[in-house]
Design brief:
By secondary structure, the chain is of the alpha/beta class. It has a domain of 187 residues. It is built from eleven helices and nine strands. Strands 1-9-8-2-5-3-4 form a seven-stranded mixed β-sheet, sandwiched between helices. It has a two-stranded antiparallel ribbon with strand order 6-7.
Length: 299
Protein backbone atom coordinates (compact mmCIF):
# COMPACT_ATOMS: atom_id res chain seq x y z
CA UNK A 1 0.00 0.00 0.00
CA UNK A 2 2.72 2.48 1.01
CA UNK A 3 4.80 1.60 -2.04
CA UNK A 4 1.81 2.07 -4.36
CA UNK A 5 1.09 5.51 -2.92
CA UNK A 6 4.73 6.56 -3.21
CA UNK A 7 4.86 5.34 -6.81
CA UNK A 8 1.85 7.51 -7.55
CA UNK A 9 3.51 10.53 -5.91
CA UNK A 10 6.74 9.88 -7.82
CA UNK A 11 4.88 10.58 -11.08
CA UNK A 12 3.93 14.09 -9.98
CA UNK A 13 6.02 17.10 -11.03
CA UNK A 14 8.39 18.25 -8.31
CA UNK A 15 6.66 21.66 -7.92
CA UNK A 16 3.36 19.89 -7.19
CA UNK A 17 5.07 17.43 -4.84
CA UNK A 18 6.54 20.30 -2.87
CA UNK A 19 3.20 22.11 -2.76
CA UNK A 20 1.55 19.01 -1.33
CA UNK A 21 4.54 18.68 0.99
CA UNK A 22 3.78 22.07 2.51
CA UNK A 23 0.31 20.82 3.39
CA UNK A 24 1.79 17.62 4.83
CA UNK A 25 4.25 19.65 6.88
CA UNK A 26 1.43 21.56 8.57
CA UNK A 27 -0.55 18.38 9.19
CA UNK A 28 2.47 16.81 10.91
CA UNK A 29 2.97 19.99 12.93
CA UNK A 30 -0.60 19.95 14.20
CA UNK A 31 -0.61 16.21 14.93
CA UNK A 32 -0.32 15.46 18.68
CA UNK A 33 3.10 14.25 19.74
CA UNK A 34 6.67 15.25 20.50
CA UNK A 35 7.45 16.62 17.03
CA UNK A 36 6.28 20.19 17.65
CA UNK A 37 7.96 20.47 21.04
CA UNK A 38 11.27 19.10 19.78
CA UNK A 39 11.37 21.47 16.80
CA UNK A 40 10.66 24.46 19.04
CA UNK A 41 13.29 23.41 21.58
CA UNK A 42 15.99 22.73 19.00
CA UNK A 43 15.35 25.97 17.14
CA UNK A 44 15.45 27.94 20.37
CA UNK A 45 18.70 26.20 21.33
CA UNK A 46 20.28 27.07 17.98
CA UNK A 47 19.84 30.80 18.48
CA UNK A 48 18.91 31.14 14.80
CA UNK A 49 15.21 31.81 15.13
CA UNK A 50 15.76 35.34 16.44
CA UNK A 51 17.76 36.39 13.38
CA UNK A 52 15.60 34.68 10.74
CA UNK A 53 12.04 36.06 10.56
CA UNK A 54 9.46 33.39 9.78
CA UNK A 55 11.96 30.58 10.33
CA UNK A 56 9.55 28.30 12.23
CA UNK A 57 6.95 28.54 9.46
CA UNK A 58 9.58 27.77 6.83
CA UNK A 59 10.88 24.78 8.81
CA UNK A 60 7.36 23.33 8.98
CA UNK A 61 6.94 23.67 5.22
CA UNK A 62 10.40 22.38 4.30
CA UNK A 63 9.87 19.33 6.54
CA UNK A 64 6.84 18.31 4.50
CA UNK A 65 8.61 18.93 1.22
CA UNK A 66 11.46 16.70 2.31
CA UNK A 67 9.14 13.82 3.13
CA UNK A 68 7.25 13.83 -0.17
CA UNK A 69 10.22 14.44 -2.45
CA UNK A 70 11.60 11.06 -1.33
CA UNK A 71 9.04 9.48 -3.67
CA UNK A 72 10.66 11.20 -6.65
CA UNK A 73 14.23 10.60 -5.49
CA UNK A 74 13.82 6.92 -4.67
CA UNK A 75 11.37 5.77 -7.34
CA UNK A 76 12.10 7.72 -10.50
CA UNK A 77 14.68 6.33 -12.97
CA UNK A 78 18.18 7.08 -11.77
CA UNK A 79 19.08 9.29 -14.72
CA UNK A 80 15.95 11.38 -14.15
CA UNK A 81 16.80 11.86 -10.48
CA UNK A 82 20.28 13.13 -11.37
CA UNK A 83 18.70 15.71 -13.71
CA UNK A 84 16.97 17.27 -10.68
CA UNK A 85 20.39 18.55 -9.59
CA UNK A 86 20.68 21.96 -11.24
CA UNK A 87 23.94 23.26 -9.81
CA UNK A 88 26.99 21.88 -8.00
CA UNK A 89 28.98 24.79 -6.50
CA UNK A 90 32.34 23.60 -5.21
CA UNK A 91 32.44 20.54 -7.46
CA UNK A 92 36.05 21.40 -8.28
CA UNK A 93 36.97 20.57 -4.67
CA UNK A 94 35.51 17.09 -5.06
CA UNK A 95 37.31 16.51 -8.35
CA UNK A 96 40.63 17.69 -6.89
CA UNK A 97 40.20 15.43 -3.87
CA UNK A 98 39.47 12.42 -6.08
CA UNK A 99 42.57 13.12 -8.17
CA UNK A 100 44.67 13.11 -4.98
CA UNK A 101 43.94 9.39 -4.80
CA UNK A 102 43.29 9.00 -1.06
CA UNK A 103 39.52 9.02 -1.24
CA UNK A 104 36.86 11.50 -0.21
CA UNK A 105 34.72 11.50 2.92
CA UNK A 106 31.42 13.14 1.99
CA UNK A 107 30.10 14.57 5.26
CA UNK A 108 26.40 15.11 4.63
CA UNK A 109 24.34 16.67 7.45
CA UNK A 110 20.54 16.41 7.48
CA UNK A 111 20.05 19.48 5.31
CA UNK A 112 17.70 19.75 2.35
CA UNK A 113 17.45 16.65 0.19
CA UNK A 114 20.38 14.67 1.56
CA UNK A 115 18.97 11.51 -0.07
CA UNK A 116 19.92 12.78 -3.53
CA UNK A 117 23.62 13.21 -2.76
CA UNK A 118 24.61 9.54 -2.92
CA UNK A 119 22.53 8.99 -6.06
CA UNK A 120 24.16 11.95 -7.78
CA UNK A 121 27.67 10.74 -6.95
CA UNK A 122 26.93 7.05 -7.58
CA UNK A 123 25.77 7.95 -11.10
CA UNK A 124 29.38 8.92 -11.84
CA UNK A 125 31.59 6.70 -9.69
CA UNK A 126 31.64 4.13 -6.88
CA UNK A 127 30.14 5.45 -3.67
CA UNK A 128 29.80 3.59 -0.36
CA UNK A 129 27.58 4.61 2.54
CA UNK A 130 26.43 3.05 5.79
CA UNK A 131 22.88 1.87 6.10
CA UNK A 132 20.75 0.91 9.09
CA UNK A 133 18.07 -1.63 8.09
CA UNK A 134 14.47 -0.82 8.92
CA UNK A 135 12.56 -3.16 11.20
CA UNK A 136 9.77 -3.29 8.62
CA UNK A 137 10.68 -5.51 5.69
CA UNK A 138 8.67 -3.51 3.15
CA UNK A 139 10.27 -0.21 4.20
CA UNK A 140 13.70 -1.83 4.18
CA UNK A 141 13.23 -3.06 0.60
CA UNK A 142 12.06 0.40 -0.46
CA UNK A 143 15.09 2.09 1.13
CA UNK A 144 17.54 -0.27 -0.53
CA UNK A 145 15.75 0.00 -3.86
CA UNK A 146 15.87 3.78 -3.68
CA UNK A 147 19.41 4.24 -2.39
CA UNK A 148 21.42 1.38 -3.88
CA UNK A 149 21.45 2.40 -7.53
CA UNK A 150 24.16 3.15 -10.05
CA UNK A 151 27.50 2.52 -8.36
CA UNK A 152 26.12 3.01 -4.84
CA UNK A 153 26.87 0.36 -2.25
CA UNK A 154 25.20 0.21 1.17
CA UNK A 155 27.05 -1.39 4.08
CA UNK A 156 25.77 -2.22 7.59
CA UNK A 157 26.37 -0.03 10.62
CA UNK A 158 28.74 -2.47 12.27
CA UNK A 159 32.41 -3.45 12.15
CA UNK A 160 32.05 -5.02 8.71
CA UNK A 161 30.60 -1.75 7.45
CA UNK A 162 33.50 0.26 8.88
CA UNK A 163 35.93 -2.11 7.18
CA UNK A 164 34.07 -1.64 3.90
CA UNK A 165 34.34 2.15 4.23
CA UNK A 166 38.06 1.87 4.93
CA UNK A 167 38.49 -0.38 1.92
CA UNK A 168 36.69 2.10 -0.33
CA UNK A 169 38.90 4.97 0.86
CA UNK A 170 42.06 2.91 0.36
CA UNK A 171 40.92 2.33 -3.24
CA UNK A 172 40.64 6.11 -3.64
CA UNK A 173 36.85 6.09 -3.76
CA UNK A 174 34.25 8.29 -2.07
CA UNK A 175 32.20 7.37 0.97
CA UNK A 176 29.27 9.09 2.68
CA UNK A 177 28.67 9.68 6.40
CA UNK A 178 26.02 11.51 8.42
CA UNK A 179 27.79 13.61 11.06
CA UNK A 180 24.77 14.80 13.03
CA UNK A 181 23.27 11.55 14.26
CA UNK A 182 23.43 10.47 17.89
CA UNK A 183 26.40 8.15 18.23
CA UNK A 184 26.08 4.62 19.53
CA UNK A 185 27.82 3.55 22.73
CA UNK A 186 31.55 3.24 22.18
CA UNK A 187 31.62 5.44 19.07
CA UNK A 188 30.86 8.81 20.56
CA UNK A 189 31.96 11.66 22.76
CA UNK A 190 30.02 14.56 24.24
CA UNK A 191 30.77 17.67 22.19
CA UNK A 192 29.11 21.10 21.94
CA UNK A 193 26.44 21.55 19.29
CA UNK A 194 24.70 24.92 19.17
CA UNK A 195 25.66 25.55 22.79
CA UNK A 196 24.54 22.22 24.25
CA UNK A 197 26.19 18.84 24.73
CA UNK A 198 25.44 16.34 21.95
CA UNK A 199 26.71 12.74 21.82
CA UNK A 200 28.73 12.98 18.62
CA UNK A 201 30.10 10.15 16.43
CA UNK A 202 33.88 9.86 16.12
CA UNK A 203 34.00 7.29 13.30
CA UNK A 204 34.21 10.01 10.67
CA UNK A 205 37.28 11.51 12.33
CA UNK A 206 38.97 8.11 12.62
CA UNK A 207 38.35 7.33 8.96
CA UNK A 208 39.84 10.64 7.86
CA UNK A 209 42.92 10.41 10.08
CA UNK A 210 43.65 6.76 9.31
CA UNK A 211 43.50 7.13 5.52
CA UNK A 212 44.41 10.73 4.75
CA UNK A 213 41.16 11.08 2.82
CA UNK A 214 39.83 14.55 2.04
CA UNK A 215 36.71 15.54 4.00
CA UNK A 216 34.08 17.73 2.36
CA UNK A 217 30.86 19.13 3.79
CA UNK A 218 28.21 18.28 1.20
CA UNK A 219 24.58 19.37 1.37
CA UNK A 220 21.74 19.43 -1.16
CA UNK A 221 19.85 22.72 -1.07
CA UNK A 222 16.19 22.50 -2.02
CA UNK A 223 15.47 25.22 -4.59
CA UNK A 224 12.26 27.24 -4.40
CA UNK A 225 9.19 26.51 -6.51
CA UNK A 226 10.21 22.90 -7.11
CA UNK A 227 13.05 23.88 -9.44
CA UNK A 228 15.30 21.05 -8.24
CA UNK A 229 18.38 20.96 -6.04
CA UNK A 230 21.76 22.61 -5.64
CA UNK A 231 24.46 20.36 -4.17
CA UNK A 232 27.20 22.26 -2.35
CA UNK A 233 30.73 20.87 -1.89
CA UNK A 234 32.47 22.84 0.89
CA UNK A 235 36.01 22.22 2.19
CA UNK A 236 36.32 22.23 5.98
CA UNK A 237 37.34 25.57 7.45
CA UNK A 238 40.30 23.93 9.22
CA UNK A 239 41.87 20.45 9.50
CA UNK A 240 40.30 18.25 12.17
CA UNK A 241 42.39 17.92 15.38
CA UNK A 242 43.88 14.57 16.32
CA UNK A 243 42.17 14.51 19.72
CA UNK A 244 38.80 12.73 19.44
CA UNK A 245 36.83 15.17 21.58
CA UNK A 246 38.35 18.23 19.93
CA UNK A 247 37.76 16.77 16.47
CA UNK A 248 34.11 15.97 17.29
CA UNK A 249 33.62 19.54 18.49
CA UNK A 250 35.23 20.87 15.31
CA UNK A 251 32.98 18.67 13.18
CA UNK A 252 29.91 19.94 15.04
CA UNK A 253 31.02 23.51 14.31
CA UNK A 254 31.13 22.61 10.64
CA UNK A 255 27.58 21.29 10.83
CA UNK A 256 26.52 24.48 12.62
CA UNK A 257 28.14 26.52 9.87
CA UNK A 258 26.31 24.87 6.98
CA UNK A 259 23.03 24.50 8.90
CA UNK A 260 23.14 28.24 9.54
CA UNK A 261 23.32 28.86 5.81
CA UNK A 262 20.04 27.00 5.22
CA UNK A 263 18.33 26.94 8.63
CA UNK A 264 14.85 26.31 7.23
CA UNK A 265 16.06 23.10 5.58
CA UNK A 266 17.84 21.57 8.57
CA UNK A 267 16.13 18.64 10.31
CA UNK A 268 15.34 20.30 13.65
CA UNK A 269 12.90 17.51 14.55
CA UNK A 270 15.73 15.07 15.30
CA UNK A 271 16.40 14.24 18.97
CA UNK A 272 20.01 15.39 18.70
CA UNK A 273 20.61 15.87 22.42
CA UNK A 274 19.42 12.54 23.80
CA UNK A 275 21.66 10.24 25.83
CA UNK A 276 21.92 6.81 24.16
CA UNK A 277 21.64 3.68 26.24
CA UNK A 278 24.89 2.72 27.93
CA UNK A 279 26.60 6.06 27.27
CA UNK A 280 27.98 8.14 30.10
CA UNK A 281 26.00 11.18 31.16
CA UNK A 282 26.91 14.51 29.57
CA UNK A 283 29.10 16.95 31.51
CA UNK A 284 27.23 18.95 34.14
CA UNK A 285 28.82 22.21 33.09
CA UNK A 286 27.62 24.13 30.05
CA UNK A 287 29.87 23.92 26.95
CA UNK A 288 32.31 26.76 26.59
CA UNK A 289 31.27 29.08 23.81
CA UNK A 290 33.76 31.70 22.71
CA UNK A 291 31.36 33.18 20.21
CA UNK A 292 27.61 32.92 19.58
CA UNK A 293 26.26 30.27 17.21
CA UNK A 294 26.38 31.32 13.53
CA UNK A 295 23.49 33.58 12.60
CA UNK A 296 22.88 34.84 16.13
CA UNK A 297 22.38 38.63 16.16
CA UNK A 298 24.84 40.68 18.23
CA UNK A 299 23.77 41.65 21.73
Amino acid sequence: MILSVLRLFSLLPLPLLHTLGIVLGWLIWLWPGRHQQRVRENLAQSGLIQSHPGLLRKVIQETGKGLLEIAAVWLRPHENVVKLVRETPGWEHFEAAMKAGKGVVVIAPHIGCWEIINLYLAFRQPFTAMYKPSRKAAVDRLMRQGRERGQAKLVPTDLSGVKALLGALKRGEAIGVLPDQVATKGDGVWAPFFGRWAYTPTMTVRLIHSTGATPLMVYAERLSWGRGFRIHFDPLEAPLPKDRAEAAAALNREVERVASKLPAQYMWSYARYKQPGGAEAPPKTEPEQDEPPPGTPPA
